[in-house]
Design brief:
Helix content: 55-70%
Radius of gyration: 28 Å
Number of strands: 2
Distance between the termini: 64 Å
Strand order of the largest sheet: 1-2
Structural class: mainly alpha
Length: 569
């Protein structure tokens, strides 16, 4: 009997240990993980081997791969999956479906611009032979390369008579850049190793590459020419995507609002900022002249060369405050391992304020800037403005995100600005609510950035809806937010020509309101402490916030889930 009891106890201990191990495994994985790992590896293999972007062969391989993975995903028993695994299933399926949509769009647009690249198929065929080192008929290949230049010379004058949308102009540009990659791949492989190829191909290659480069730029410029989009004096020419594509991208990001509803949210928040700004202005003795109060704050800038020391001081203040309030776990290594560098003058044209993540990039004047540019940079990066966002860039914002994302559920490949920028912006909300500003000057600094987030929603959506030009966006930032003109220009240039996706700039405030709504649901109700909530966010890694909400509130989402969370109250 005693032996029997001992066996039962041992079995119970093993079962408990197994359950604990299983539970701890879910801290880093899910049933969908293995499929996602294979997908990522296959996707890397295909894009590495079929390296020519826009080629029909590459597109066909990618379409088949995505369809195959959708089929494999559908075979999983969804009803038996726990909540976190259901989230992975839904988001992985969403990504696969969206990639197929984008490949269909690529195919449709490629068919419309194919008449401008009649030589493409022959170049794709040559590059395909090169992959396995086939012997090349150098004289025949030289003639083929020379014929490219002749065809480009014949086609270029016809561009003037054509109408190209910005999207088609960009598609043609990228397709030709892919062909240049094909040419270079062939030339670099054989040149210097095959004597006959080397003798025949030097001049034809350089001529063909140069012609294609000029041709690609001409087609891109045509897509941005008068009648589609023209320079309004700002020198900034982007690619407004239109309302239909905005709706598609909002659906992908699980934001169940229209562009017009989001603009309305931004205007409501602007009204709140206006009220708080007037309070701070009156405390400073400027009455309702908030611009005069803001002007005083801007002129608190530190001398050239002293900005790094000022940033360190502000960083220490914010970290001490967060620790004192016990708002989130701050690992000691995360406090230690961020780097600091100065931003180049060239990059400051696109990013006029300091940036954070794995390291800190500080924007401040250099000796190569003009005097008025130096002053505007110093004023725009004054201590009160900088204090308002140092926590956004480092701890508990982007650097802590970077640190934790590299240590928790790393298989989750669902990045979104509504999580990354939304969570960092949310910390601005939290620190305001926790009385981080020491006085009206600090509040004006924090309100500058809050108005800036409102303005980003308005000007970026109105631009992509075709309602505003870049110059109108710049003027709006100067007049409504109080930007220096140089920082406003940098912000708009960054938004429309800095390779940011169209919804990136709205991700800050809209994502912050998602985290704020979830905070009300979990923290304000007493279900979690601030620290528990903020740690839980980081442990799950980046994803649409509605999916994070499902995990933290244990919602067993249906297989056919569609976004419906109206988070803004």
């Amino acid at each position: 009997m005693r032996k029997y009891i001992l066996v039962l106890l041992a079995f119970a201990a093993l079962s408990a240990a197994a359950q604990k191990t299983e539970s701890s495994l879910y801290d880093q994985t899910s049933e969908v993980n293995n499929l996602m790992v294979h997908y990522n590896a296959d996707n890397t293999s295909i894009t590495r081997f079929y390296l020519i972007g826009q080629s029909p062969e590459r597109r066909m391989k990618l379409k088949k791969m995505h369809e195959d993975y959708l089929s494999q995903l559908a075979k999983m028993d969804y009803d038996k999956l726990p909540v976190g695994s259901r989230v992975d299933y839904i988001l992985f399926k969403r990504n696969l479906t969206n990639e197929l949509r984008l490949l269909d769009l690529e195919e449709n647009e490629y068919s419309q611009i194919s008449k401008w690249i009649p030589f493409a198929d022959s170049l794709y065929a040559v590059e395909k032979l090169r992959r396995r080192g086939a012997a090349m008929n150098a004289p025949l290949l030289a003639e083929q390369f020379n014929s490219i230049q002749r065809q480009v010379n014949m086609l270029t004058p016809r561009i003037k008579q054509e109408t190209l949308t910005p999207a088609l102009g960009e598609r043609a540009y990228n397709a030709i850049k892919g062909l240049q990659t094909a040419l270079k791949s062939v030339y670099d492989f054989y040149n210097g190793y095959d004597p006959l190829f080397t003798w025949w191909m030097a001049t034809p290659y350089r001529s063909a590459d140069s012609s294609l480069n000029l041709y690609a730029n001409a087609l891109r410029a045509k897509g941005k020419s008068p009648g589609t989009q023209k320079d309004d004096g700002s020198g900034i020419i982007g690619n407004p995507i239109g309302r239909e594509e905005l709706i598609q991208q909002l659906r992908f990001e699980m934001i169940p609002y229209t562009p017009e509803e989001l603009i309305e949210i931004a205007n409501k928040e602007f009204a709140w900022c206006d009220q708080e700004l007037l309070k701070a202005s009156r405390e400073m003795g400027f009455g309702d002249n908030w611009k005069a109060a803001q002007e005083k704050v801007k002129n608190t800038f530190v001398p050239a060369g002293r900005q790094p020391q000022m940033i360190i001081e502000l960083y220490n203040q914010s970290v001490d405050f967060i620790r004192k309030k016990d708002l989130v776990t701050l690992p000691s290594l995360a406090d230690e391992d961020w780097t600091m560098n100065m931003m180049t003058p060239e990059r400051q044209l696109f990013a006029p304020f300091f940036l954070g993540g794995s390291g800190l990039l500080i924007a401040y004047p250099t000796n190569t800037m003009k005097e008025d540019e130096k002053l505007m940079s110093m004023r725009g990066n004054n201590p009160h403005f900088s204090r308002a966002v140092v926590h956004h860039e480092l701890l508990a914002g982007h650097h802590l995100q970077w640190y934790m994302n590299n240590r928790n559920k790393t298989y989750r490949n669902f990045p979104t600005p509504f999580w990354t920028e939304g969570n960092a912006c949310y910390w601005e909300f939290v620190l305001w609510d926790q009385q981080f500003p020491r006085g009206p000057e600090d509040r004006i600094g924090m309100l500058f950035w809050r108005m800036h987030r409102c303005a980003r929603i308005i000007f970026s959506l109105k631009y992509h809806l075709g309602e505003w030009t870049p110059q109108q966006c710049i003027d709006f930032l100067v007049d409504r937010v109080g930007h220096e003109r140089s920082t406003a220009e940098g912000e708009v240039r960054r938004s429309f020509t800095g390779q940011y996706p169209p919804l990136y700039q709205i991700g800050y405030m809209i994502g912050a309101f998602q985290f704020w709504a979830l905070k009300k649901e979990l923290v304000d109700s007493g279900k979690m402490s601030y620290r528990q909530y903020h740690d839980a966010i980081l442990r799950e890694n980046a994803m649409p916030v509605e999916m994070l909400r499902a995990i933290l509130t244990n919602q067993k989402l249906p297989k056919d889930f569609e976004s419906s969370w109206r988070f803004y109250k």
